[in-house]
Amino acid sequence: MATTSTSRPGRSLIGLLVVVVLLFGIMALTKTWKPKLGLDLRGGTTITLTASTIDGSGKVTAEQLNEAKNIIGQRVNGAGVAEADITTSGANHINVAVPGATKESLVSQVGQTALLYFRMVYDAQAAAPQPTPSTTPSTTPKPTTTPKATTTPKPSATIKPSTTPSSPKGRAWSSALGEATPTPTPKAGATPTAKPSATPSTPAAGGDPLNYTPDAATQAAFATFKCGDKQVDDPNKPIFSCDRQGTYKYLLGPAIMKGTDLSDASAGIPQNGLQWQVNLKFTGEGGDKFLKATTAISKRGQGQNLFAIVLDGETISTPSVENPIPGGQAQITGTFTEAEARDLANVLKYGALPVKFDISSVETVSPQLGGDQLSAGIWAGLAGLALVVVFCFLYYRGLGIVVVLSLAAAAVLTGTLVILLGKAIGFTLTLAGIAGLIVAVGITADSFIIYFERLRDEVREGRSLRSSVETGWARAKHTIIAADSISLLAALVLYVLAIGSVRGFAFTLGLTTLIDLVVVFLFTKPVVTLLARTDFFGHGHKLSGLDPEHLGVERLPGQTKPTARPRKTPSTRKPVGGEV
User: Fold this and answer.
1) Partners of 101 in the beta sheet?
2) What sign results for the dihedral spanned by CA atoms 202, 208, 209, 211?
3) What is the pLDDT of residue 182?
4) Are 153 and 182 in contact (CB under 8 A)?
5) Which run of H or E residues covers position 268?
6) Cα angle at 242 between 240 and 248, to 5 degrees?
7) Are 418 and 362 in contact (CB under 8 A)?
8) SS3 of the chain: helix, strand, coil, percent, to 5
9) Is 569 exposed, middle or buried (0-12, 13-18, 19+ CB in 10 A)?
10) What pLDDT sits at residue 94?
11) Which of 391, 412, 512, 549 is the most buried (most CB within 10 A)?
12) Contact indicator for 180, 154 with CB cutoff of 8 Å
């Protein structure tokens, strides 16, 4: 009984055509017509960082690695670098791909260990919005005044001793994530005639950070500071900082504690509680520092008793303190969602357990060299494709048409998927990826050869061409699946174990192997079925690749041996009127 693919090969071809149309439709909707090229093809710098704990005592967790990736992203974007691609790889690697030439300072910056700092808040103001083209900013800054109630940040929840059963040994530290603190009224002073530099003054060397007081120059500089202005996060100096949303700006004193003073941070819901909270536990020395800090801050009075949590110069949270907190434990409570509580806990844990980075490799490619490598890769692919096509036409003759059409179908599917995957998951096509595509040409051609040779063997065994198309496919497809499965498994193992550009090779190799299976089943086999019904292939034309001489047989099964046409003989019919 004939299979569906034999009697209706058009169904498979129509199905494949629908898939191609859908892919092009998605490209049109997303307006994506070009693949995302790697830095080795368009120029730039790739930095591979290997993470480890500072003391080398433990393994870097996935949460630490993801938090480190986010921090590095903030650093790179803060340096004014656009279109940077930062990804994690394996259990302890981070890949930073930066387009264009990269300075050595940026290379050292992305690998610098990030630490969490706790600072006192000396001033807080609503950040000035960015001027629009229709707005003309004033050339002289106005004196700092207390913001009105509509623009003043709401106070955070209060730090006070814990009375909840869930924390009998500690003290509660309440804060609402993302809420900024009220703006203290600045000291009276004249507006400077010249625009001050937005850099805080340096306190005296060896001074107690709890006793720091910003001078007039620092306050004047803070008045002109805007979110986005470059700042250096030096723990020994005051800093101007903004919250994550860029809504409020803060004048912060020198660091009074570091993230390493924390021993643990976790998010959860307390017993008989409804709101998420973040639980903190300090080290022995950190607990003493925390008690000293909360004692000094609580004495400053309402509106001045503010405590900022700062990571990489960005203010994460700003709770207030009303009473000293002993015991080395605290809770941050407020109107947390689960995501907000876990986010803050991860930030605190990363500061408490900092990760150091070793720069494993730095690869810089100029735009000119990247363009040359792209051209070389394309020409290499075309050369390999041409050799395969020439071989198939010389050896298989007319069946070479099937090879060309199948390779064209595979090229269309591969090209559209590479473009769409670049848009969807950020897949970048690198030089190693192009090598994977070139290797895939051989894998696809190998599938054709397996099928064609099996078909020819069936014909030699005495079956008709139409029958050989089906029986040959039934036997060849198992070999094709087995071969492609091995290639797919090798690509998967290579992708999991490798790092850097080698993963690009493994990804494209695996992708094209899957495409090969789709093309062979939905295109190559149906096309051969249709061609077998034509006189050119079905009757074994000399150029079809299925002629008796090329197959090494006397004649095709079911084909009679041609004989010479009989010569006409004189008619033996008697003429009218009798014999002559």
Assistant:
1) none
2) negative
3) 36
4) yes
5) strand 262-268
6) 115
7) no
8) 45, 15, 40
9) exposed
10) 85
11) 512
12) yes
Give the Å distances, CA to CA, from 386 to 378, 403, 418, 512. 12, 11, 22, 18
| pLDDT at site 338 | 81
Q: What is the spatial distance between Cα 365 and Cα 348, in angstroms, rounded to a whole number?
A: 37
pLDDT of residue 390: 87
Are 377 and 362 a contacting pair, CB within 8 Å?
no
Backbone dihedral angles phi then psi of residue 252, each to the nearest 5 degrees: -110, 145
Residue among 555, 544, 211, 181 at smallest CA distance from 398: 544
- DSSP single-letter state for residue 516: H
Calpha distance 41→368 (Å, rounded): 9
Q: How far is CA 198 from the centre of its chain?
A: 36
pLDDT at 353: 52
Contacts of 362 (CB under 8 A, 6+ apart): 45, 46, 47, 48, 107
For the chain (580 residues), the mean pLDDT of every run of 10, in chain order, is: 54 90 90 80 78 71 80 66 72 78 58 77 79 40 32 43 34 34 36 44 65 88 86 85 87 88 83 80 88 86 81 82 83 78 76 68 70 77 83 83 88 90 81 83 84 84 80 89 91 82 84 91 89 78 73 61 48 49
Cβ(500)–Cβ(97) below 8 Å: no
How far is it, in rounded angstroms, from Cα 576 to Cα 580? 10
Concatenating the DSSP letter of every residue in 58-69 gives SPPPHHHHHHHH
Nearest to 428 by CA among 110, 97, 101, 106: 97
Q: How far apart are CA 151 and CA 154, in angstroms?
A: 9
Task: Report how far residue 434's alpha carbon sits from residue 425's, in angstroms, rounded to the nearest whole number.
Answer: 18
Supply φ then ψ for residue 251, to 5 degrees.
Answer: -100, 110
CB-based contacts of 552: which residues, under 8 Å, 6+ apart? 460
What type of residue sits at position 143? P
Picking from 315, 335, 256, the residue whose alpha carbon sits closest to that of residue 123 is 315
Q: Which amino acid, 469?
A: V
- Look at residue 17 in the predicted model and tell me its pLDDT: 92
